């Protein structure tokens, strides 16, 4: 008897490919187009090319159950607001023939939210080019501060926005949106004890830090390198899928996703702070808490790697968890990384 050789990842991606094809007819101007899968993680994103004009678009097929339609509408509303009231380059939603920005595709009795976005030129920053990355982080600090300024200036309007909350409870606590870090790959009893101490320290420090409106608001929540596009001397920001309410400094932590253990991180933080402070103030007390947010994000990513099956999580494996030990020990010892 032979065992089934179907890879669940391949099977899942093939399903998303079918949904993407079913979404195209909602956009009559794309009657002649090609579809190419770009990325599959929380959602599947596709490069759509109009084969008559060679105009490019990005189609996002949302994972069912991750966001409600109202939550996606709130994301798109915020994107349009950023585009209108700031100089930040973002990808904008494109409406279909029915005038709607979100198209609903029903596949196997499940509803999938599909959104078409404008295409932005550029390449993700290169984590192996240290010097270039350091200078890019100064620019990223400026952009992040502008995003936070925009969030604070529109506080009243944003209160009705329906988005996720990224705080201790939803990241490391009782209701973790990306799963429990305790279920991550490579968690041994010793490591669980170490990370529990880290988690408890994070909780204590965040309770003391508080959620004042100058520290906590609507943020991007996933400014990792893959969600940035560099074109000459510009950085553009994409993928607001995880935007929600959280600490402003969490945006810095997300920019260091997957590279938190690299030796050049302190230089990146220094550069980011220089850029950020050129736009809005950041107190010494806030700066001291940066390692807390970095460790919180790192434990969240351990949970994500353990609960997802995609190319990134397969590549990272349990080595990502093991590389966290040094960061955890240092944070417990002196609150630094």
What does this structure look like?
Belongs to the pseudomonas-type ThrB family. InterPro entries: Aminoglycoside_PTrfase, Kinase-like_dom_sf, Pseudomonas-type_ThrB. It is a single chain. With 337 residues, this protein is an alpha+beta fold. Helix content is 44%, strand content 17%. The chain has two domains: 8-118, Phosphorylase Kinase, domain 1 (2-Layer Sandwich), CATH 3.30.200; 130-334, Aminoglycoside 3'-phosphotransferase, Chain: A, domain 2 (Alpha-Beta Complex), CATH 3.90.1200. The strands form three sheets. Strands 1, 2, 3, 4, 5 and 6 form a six-stranded antiparallel β-sheet that branches. The chain has a three-stranded mixed β-sheet with strand order 7-11-8. Strands 9-10 form a two-stranded antiparallel ribbon. α6 packs across α13. It starts with 7 loop residues before the first helix and ends with a helix.
Spell out the key features of this protein:
337 residues, alpha+beta, Phosphorylase Kinase, domain 1, Aminoglycoside 3'-phosphotransferase, Chain: A, domain 2, 2 domains, 6-stranded antiparallel β-sheet, 3-stranded mixed β-sheet, 13 helices, 44% helix, globular, Phosphotransferase
| DSSP strand content | 15-25%
The tally of domains stands at: 2
In terms of structural class, how would the helical and strand content be classed?
Answer: alpha+beta
- Name the overall outline: globular
Helix content: 40-55%
CATH class type of the largest domain: Alpha Beta
Distance between the termini: 52 Å
Regions with pLDDT < 50 over 5+ consecutive residues? none
Question: Helical stretch count?
Answer: 13
Q: What's the CATH superfamily of the largest domain, by name?
A: Aminoglycoside phosphotransferase (APH), C-terminal lobe
Organism: Neobacillus rhizophilus
Protein name: Phosphotransferase
GO biological process, one term: threonine biosynthetic process
Pfam family, one: APH
């Amino acid at each position: 008897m032979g065992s089934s050789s179907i890879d669940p990842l391949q099977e899942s991606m093939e399903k998303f490919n079918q949904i993407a094809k079913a979404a195209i007819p909602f956009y009559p101007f794309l009657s002649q187009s090609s579809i190419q899968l770009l990325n599959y993680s929380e959602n599947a994103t596709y490069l759509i090319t109009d084969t008559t004009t060679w105009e490019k678009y990005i189609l996002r097929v949302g994972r069912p159950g991750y966001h409600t339609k109202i939550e996606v509408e709130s994301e798109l509303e915020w994107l349009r607001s950023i585009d209108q009231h700031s100089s930040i380059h973002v990808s904008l939603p494109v409406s279909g023939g029915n005038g709607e920005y979100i198209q609903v595709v029903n596949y196997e009795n499940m509803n999938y939210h599909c959104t078409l976005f404008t295409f932005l030129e550029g390449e993700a920053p290169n984590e192996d080019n240290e010097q270039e990355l350091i200078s890019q982080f100064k620019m990223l600090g400026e952009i992040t501060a502008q995003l936070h300024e925009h969030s604070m200036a529109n506080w009243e309007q944003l209160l009705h926005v329906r988005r996720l909350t990224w705080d201790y409870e939803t990241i490391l606590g009782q209701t973790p949106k990306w799963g429990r870090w305790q279920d991550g790959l490579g968690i041994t009893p010793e490591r669980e004890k170490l990370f529990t101490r880290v988690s408890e320290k994070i909780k204590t420090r965040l309770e003391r830090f508080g959620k004042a409106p100058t520290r906590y608001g609507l943020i991007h929540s996933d400014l990792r390198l893959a969600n940035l596009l560099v074109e000459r001397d510009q950085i553009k920001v994409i993928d607001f899928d995880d935007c929600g309410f959280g600490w402003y400094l969490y945006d810095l932590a997300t920019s260091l996703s997957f590279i938190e253990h690299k030796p050049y991180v302190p230089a990146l933080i220094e550069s980011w702070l220089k850029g950020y402070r050129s736009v809005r103030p950041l107190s010494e007390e806030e700066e001291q808490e940066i390692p807390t947010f970095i460790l919180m994000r790192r434990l969240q990513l351990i949970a994500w790697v353990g609960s997802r099956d995609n190319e990134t999580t397969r590549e990272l494996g349990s080595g990502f968890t093991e590389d966290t030990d040094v960061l955890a020990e240092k944070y417990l010892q002196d609150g630094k990384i």
